[in-house]
Structures are given as C-alpha cells and as structure tokens.
Amino acid sequence: MKMKRWLSLLMAFLITAVYASGCSSASKDSTANSTFGNATEASQVSETTKPSEGNTGEVINLTLWHNRAGSAGEILEQDRIPAFNQGLGAELRINITPVYQGDDIISKIKAVSQANDVKNLPDLIQIYAGDVEYMSTVPYVIPMEEFIANDPSFDMGDILSQLINTYTFSDVLYSMPFHASTLMFYWNKTAFAEAGLDPDKPPATIAEMAEIAPKLMKKEGEAVTQYAITLGIVNNYLNHWISGQGEYSFLGNNESGRAGRMTKVTFDENGTMAKFLNEWKKVLDTGAVQYVEEGNQQRDEFNAGLSAMVVCTNNGLASIKTMSKEMGFEFGVAALPKVDPNDTGGVCPGGSSVYILDKGNQGSIDASWEFVKYWVSPENQYEWCMQSGNIPVNAKTFDLPEMQTFIAEDPYYIEAYNCMMASHPKVQEHLSPAKPAFETIFKEVGFQFSDGQLAVDEAVALMAEQCNAALDEYNRANPIN
User: Fold this and answer.
1) Considering only the top CATH level, what class is 183-347+428-477?
2) What is the rounded distance in angstroms from the CA atom of residue 457 to the CA atom of residue 461?
3) Whose CA, among 37, 170, 204, 472, lies 20 to 30 Å from 321?
C-alpha cells in the first residue's frame, strides 16, 4: 500500500509540474459600462496614436515583467508573446520581451520604484489581483481608464464586469485584466458511489460536507488511505467563504480595502469569521480532514485518489482530467459549498492584471496600450485560455465558433465562468496593505484552531488582534495622505 501511495503521489507531482499555473469591487456598483470620471486631469495618454504613426522606423522594444510559472509561463513566453511580436507587433514595429520575476515580483517593483530607478522599470507589469492597492501608490503607473477614455476604438463593455471591480481601487481602474480564475469544488464521483452517496450530488454547503465526510474516509487498520477532503484554513479560501456570505460581506473596513485604505478588520464585528469557523468545525470533528496549508498538495492528494473532495481553482481542471483517467476515477465540478444555504454572494474573481508604466517615453506608452488591447482581444483570449485553462476576460471570446465548439465538448470548463459571473460584483478578494502578514496570521491561527488548540471565539479574537496590529504597523509607516 505504501508503494502504491508513493507511486500515486509521484504521478500527481509530475502532472502538477506540467500544468502548474497561479491563481486572486469597486466602492460603488461599477459595471463594465461605467464612465471613468476620476482619471488624472493631465493625462499622459495620446489620443489613439499608433506607434507606427510618426516614428522613424525603429522598433519600439518593451519589457513585460510577469509571474507566470510552469506551463502558463511557457505558453506566455513561447507562444502568445511571439504571436504578438510576429503579427501585430511586426506591423506596428513593437517588440515585447517577457521577463519572469517570480512570486516576489511585487517586492522587485517596490525596490525599483522606491529607488526612482526609471531605467530598470518595466514598460508593463503583470501581477496578482490583491496588489492593486499598492500599485495605486506607484507614481509611474498610468491608470488604465485614461487609455480607455482616450481611445474610442476600445469598448470596455466587452471586458467582464466582475473583473473591472477587481482592478478598481477608490473608483479608479488602474489595470487591465490579464487572466481570470476562481475557486471551484471538485469531487470524486467514483468514491461517492463506493460510499453509497449519490455521485451526481455534490454538497451545496459546508454542513453537507460534514454529513458525508465520515462515509468518504477509508482506513486500513489505523492508516488512512482516503480522506474526505484535504484543506487548510488559508487566506485564499477565507476570501471566498467570508466575502460570499449573505448578499456579500467584507473582511475589513472600506469595503475590504477597495473603497480606500483598510485600517481595521471587520470579520470579528460582523460575525462572518465565527460563522465560517463554526461550520468548518463540523467537518473537522468528523476526523476525515487532512490538514494542508501549502502549495498544491491538496490537489495532488485528490489527483492520486487519496482524498475524495478538493477545493482549487479552475486552473487545476487540466491536471485533474488527466490524473482521473490515469487513476481510474470519474470526477465532477461544482460551485464552492456555501457557509449558509441562504448565501447568495458567490465567489471572488481571481487572477492577475497588467499595468502600464510611464518611463518618460510617449512612444513606449502608446505601444504598451496597443499590446494591452491585443492581449484582451477575443482571439488572443481564446488562444491563451485554451492552452492555460484560464477564464477569458473578454465576453466576446464566447461568441467565437471555436470557443462554442470547445465548451460543447468540455462542459466542465464553463462552470468556473458561470460561477464567477453569477457572483455579486462586490464579492472580491480583500486588499489589505498588510496582505503578507494576513496570510501568515490566517495560516498559523487556522492551524491552531484546526488542531483543537483554540475555540471559535478565541481564534476569531486572535486573528482580529494580530491583523489589526499588522494594519496599524503598516499605516504608521505609510500614513494615508
């Protein structure tokens, strides 16, 4: 059995390495058709001037910093960027050089920006959704809404409205969606049937997960050979399970930091954290939970048939499809189980966006905008998403015949899009300026709670105390203007 388990984990690891790719509202009910009224008065953006118009024939070379690792990074660097450079880029005399900067990309842009090292700034930078609050403070960032306002050829109504809210901070749209994803629930239909459960009926709530969990756990003597679910309490999951409560809820003040700088958490005041922990304790009490808080282990366990349920992004669909065939089980995809059956908020849009930086060269700024428009075009979004597994950020992608054919052949793919679009626009990831500290706090306190060291009220109080201390420290060092 140990040898079988080792071989299964090895296979899961290899598949994950191939398919690995990363996965993160406006203060008013803004939509894709909003009129952007808060753009900088002295706009740096030319009115629809193409780089090929008026330059002397030299190629405009642009640098794009990105954090796409694994297969997504290969697709970006070896397929989609070359497609631009050899197509529209060649026509407009624009050449993009992608530079991988890893998960610490935000630290690198901070260092270069704070040093005013304009020479080493990228022209474009792609980073996660949760970094929009910091990026709004970078003086070199040109708000994306300025480009939109000055280019009547670009229809912002084509971009998914939920994503516009994701990259809007204090009523200003700073960046353009680059890739989209959200959390989904996957279950092993074969394991459900073997346990006497309906394989076509996934749990709709956390309480229902608790009801079926004991039936899904398998043992050989004292050794667990199949857990009901592999999951730890971490920032990513809390974003969804806190924000999706009721019609929508906020983890911190100022709409979780989207209407302005977050200065305190509110999950302890509005009862959302306690409500989630009370429900999750029902699952923990079954003893059928394998606690994992790092990396892709939860997906690997599911892929290897060692866990019957898993929560991960739609980007995990490709590896799950491959591994389920290898391991001989059927699986299903559904919406994230709710904290309360009456919740209607849904899930947070996640992913990343691209920013344009001003390095003092108008030609480079205009060229950067041409690339951004190309990137979000229906045709490029189709090619990118078919290879990477992401959700298209352009609604017109779904009108393409080839996209409609793909969805008909693979109906699971559209589930994430449907869940994201059915969610309330204010259900968004929090924008804590102390996000790294929040991630550590939720992970550490979440473990103590899951391990039985803390009661619900104690865990909520400790999380709130430590998160507020982190916010106070950040805001003292970075006073709000």
Assistant:
1) alpha beta
2) 6
3) 204
Q: Which one has a higher pLDDT value, 380 or 29? A: 380
**What radius of gyration do the chain's Cα atoms show?**
23
Give residue 375's pLDDT.
Answer: 98
Alpha carbon separation from 197 to 146, 189, 308 (Å, rounded): 54, 9, 12
Same CATH topology for 60-181+350-399 and 183-347+428-477: the answer is: yes
Domain regions of the chain by residue span: 60-181+350-399, 183-347+428-477
Which CATH number fits the domain 60-181+350-399, given the four candidates 1.10.10.60, 3.30.160.390, 3.40.190.10, 3.40.50.2000? 3.40.190.10
Q: Taking residues 310-320, what's their average pLDDT?
A: 90
* AA identity, residue 303: N
Tokens representing 107?
Answer: 């630290």
Predicted pLDDT of residue 475: 93
Please give the Cα distance from 471 to 406 (Å, whole number).
Answer: 45
Cα 459 versus chain centre, distance: 26
Q: Which amino acid is located at 334 in the chain? A: A
Give how far the C-alpha of residue 8 lies from the chain's centroid of Cα atoms, to the nearest Å. 28
Helical pair 2-19 and 317-327, crossing angle rounded to 10 deg: 150
Average pLDDT over residues 375-385: 97
| Angle at 130 (CA atoms; ends 128, 133), nearest 5 degrees | 115
pLDDT-derived band at 295, boundaries 50, 70, 90: low
User: For residue 40, what pLDDT is reported?
Assistant: 35
Q: Which residues contact 333 (CB under 8 A, 6 or more apart)?
A: 184, 185, 186, 317, 412, 415, 416
> Can you give the pTM of this predicted structure?
0.84
Contact 127, 105 (CB under 8 A): yes
- Tell me the C-alpha distance between 237 and 222, whole Å: 30
Report residue 225 as tokens.
């050979």
